[in-house]
Design goal:
heterotrimer; A alpha+beta; B mainly alpha; C mainly alpha; A: alpha+beta; OB fold (Dihydrolipoamide Acetyltransferase, E2P); 2 domains; five-stranded mixed β-barrel; 6 strands; elongated; C: mainly alpha; two-stranded antiparallel sheet
Chain lengths: 146, 57, 259
C-alpha cells in the first residue's frame, strides 16, 4: 500500500471519528445547552420554586393583561402542550406581542406564577412585507400564501 | 407592545450594521491588496536584478 | 561559470522547485482573475445593498431593522464556508501534500475570521432592537463565537510557524487543527434545530424560503457579491504568500551561491 493511500484512510477514519464525537457530544448536551425551558418542561418538574431559570414560549392570544399598578403585565406562556401564567414589571421589547415568541428570565413563585425580571422577544424565521402581515390574525399563522 | 418595531430609531441600527460591514471589509480588502502588491513587487525586482547579473533557471 | 551554473542551481533548488511547479500554473489563472472578482464582487455588493436599503419594503414586524439581513446572512455563510474550505485544504495537505493547499488555508483564515466577526457584530446590532438584547449565550451565538476563536487560534498557530517553514505548507498540527475544528460547522448550522435557542430557526432550507420573495432578491445579490469578494481576498493573500516564498527562495539561493 502506498503511503498516500495510508494517509487517506487514516484521514478518513479521523474525520469519521471526529464527526461522530461531535454529534455524540452535541446530543449529550441537548438538555444542558438549551437556552430556555418550555412551559411543558416546567409543569413536568423541570423548575424548582424560587430558583432562577429561563422560560420560553408563545404568548397566548388575548392573554396580555395590565395590572392596576399600570406597569405590571400578566400573560400566559404556552408551548401548545402546557400553559403557564407569567408576571412581569417593566418595559417589554417592541416585538413582544400576543401569538409571538418570548423568552423570560425569572423564577417560579409558590402560587404557580412565573415571575419574570427580564423579557426578550423571540423572532420567527418569517420575513415578509407589511401588507402581507396585515392579513387577519390566524391566517398569518400558516404560510402567508393563500 | 403591539409586536411591531416602529419609529425612526431603527434606521440607526441599520446604518451601524452596514457601516461596520463596509469599514471592516474595506480594511481587510485594502490590506490584502497592499500586501500582495508589496510582495509581488519585491519578487519581480529581485528576479530582474538576478536576470541582469547572471542566468538563473 | 556558464557551464556549471544551471546544474548547480537545479540541485540547490530541488526543494523550492517543488513548491514552484504548481503556483506557476495557479498564478496564470489567479493574476487576471483577481481584479475581475474584486470589481464584480464590489459591484454586486453595492447593487444588493442599495436594493436592500431602498428598493424593498421593511418587514411586517421588524420594520427597517430586517434590512440588516442583507449583510448578516452573507457574513454568516462566508464565516462558515471559510472554515469548511480551511478544513478541506488541511485535509488535502495531510493526504496529498499538495503545495497549494497550505497556502490556501493560510489565505482563507483572515477573511474567514473577518466575516465571522461581521456576522457577530451585525447580529448583535440586529438583536438589540429585535430581541431586546445585544448578546445572549444561546446555542447559535455561542457556537459562532467558538468559530471566531477557532480562527484566532489557527492564525496564531500558523503565524508562529511562518518563519521556519518554506513553501507555505502547514505543520501537521495546524492541518489537523483545521480538520478537527470543522466539527463546529454542523453544530452552528443545527444549533437552532437541536436546542431551544433565542435565534430563530433557519429561514432558507431545502424545502424553500420563509423569506417572502419581495424581500429575498437583494440577498441573492449580496450573497454572490460577498462570496466573490471573499474569493478575491483569498487570491490576493495567496499571491502575497507565493511572492514572499519566491523572495525567500531567491535569497537562500543567493546566499548559497555567494557563500
Amino acid at each position: 500500500m502506498k503511503a498516500k493511500h495510508q494517509r487517506l484512510i487514516l484521514a478518513a477514519l479521523a474525520v469519521v471519528g471526529v464527526a461522530g464525537a461531535g454529534v455524540l457530544g452535541a446530543s449529550a448536551l441537548r438538555d444542558e445547552a438549551a437556552y430556555f425551558r418550555t412551559p411543558a418542561e416546567v409543569k413536568g418538574g423541570a423548575a424548582v420554586t424560587g430558583e432562577a431559570m429561563r422560560l420560553g414560549g408563545m404568548v397566548q392570544a388575548g392573554s396580555i393583561k395590565r395590572l392596576p399598578d399600570g406597569v405590571t403585565i400578566r400573560f400566559v406562556a404556552t408551548d401548545g402542550k402546557a400553559d403557564l401564567p407569567v408576571e412581569f414589571t417593566g418595559i417589554v421589547p417592541d416585538l413582544f406581542a400576543e401569538e409571538s415568541g418570548m423568552v423570560a428570565d425569572g423564577r417560579m413563585r409558590a402560587d404557580g406564577v412565573f415571575v419574570a425580571d427580564r423579557i426578550l422577544a423571540k423572532h420567527d424565521e418569517r420575513y415578509m412585507p407589511p401588507q402581507m402581515g396585515d392579513m387577519p390574525e390566524g391566517a398569518g399563522k400558516a404560510a402567508p400564501k393563500a | 407592545m403591539d409586536g411591531v418595531i416602529t419609529g425612526s430609531g431603527q434606521w440607526s441600527y441599520v446604518a451601524a450594521a452596514y457601516a461596520m460591514t463596509a469599514l471592516v471589509s474595506a480594511l481587510v480588502l485594502w490590506r490584502s491588496w497592499r500586501a500582495m502588491r508589496t510582495a509581488e513587487a519585491r519578487s519581480d525586482a529581485l528576479r530582474k536584478e538576478q536576470r541582469g547579473g547572471r542566468l538563473v533557471i | 561559470m556558464q557551464s556549471t551554473g544551471p546544474a548547480r542551481v537545479a540541485v540547490l533548488d530541488r526543494k523550492s522547485m517543488h513548491a514552484y511547479a504548481n503556483p506557476t500554473r495557479f498564478l496564470a489563472i489567479a493574476r487576471p482573475l483577481t481584479p475581475w472578482l474584486t470589481g464584480l464582487g464590489l459591484l454586486l455588493i453595492l447593487i444588493g445593498c442599495v436594493a436592500g436599503l431602498t428598493m424593498v419594503p421593511g418587514d411586517y414586524k421588524q420594520g427597517e431593522t430586517a434590512r440588516i439581513l442583507y449583510v448578516h446572512v452573507p457574513a454568516a455563510w462566508l464565516g462558515m464556508g471559510g472554515w469548511t474550505s480551511l478544513a478541506i485544504a488541511g485535509l488535502v495537505q495531510l493526504v496529498w501534500r499538495h503545495p497549494l493547499s497550505g497556502i490556501a488555508a493560510r489565505a482563507v483564515a483572515v477573511p474567514g475570521m473577518m466575516f465571522t466577526a461581521l456576522c457577530l457584530i451585525t447580529g448583535s446590532i440586529w438583536g438589540k432592537p429585535t430581541w431586546g438584547t445585544w448578546w445572549e449565550w444561546d446555542g447559535r451565538m455561542t457556537s459562532m463565537l467558538v468559530l471566531l476563536f477557532l480562527y484566532a487560534g489557527f492564525i496564531a498557530l500558523t503565524a508562529g510557524e511562518d518563519a521556519q517553514r518554506g513553501g507555505g505548507s502547514l505543520s501537521r498540527g495546524a492541518a489537523i487543527y483545521a480538520v478537527v475544528g470543522a466539527v463546529n460547522i454542523p453544530i452552528i448550522n443545527r444549533s437552532v434545530v437541536w436546542w431551544n435557542s433565542l435565534h430563530q430557526g433557519p429561514s432558507i432550507t431545502l424545502g424553500g424560503s420563509s423569506i417572502d420573495g419581495a424581500l429575498l432578491w437583494p440577498l441573492g445579490l449580496t450573497l454572490l457579491g460577498f462570496s466573490l469578494l471573499f474569493g478575491a481576498i483569498v487570491l490576493m493573500r495567496m499571491r502575497a504568500i507565493i511572492a514572499e516564498n519566491r523572495v525567500a527562495a531567491r535569497m537562500r539561493r543567493l546566499a548559497d551561491e555567494e557563500g
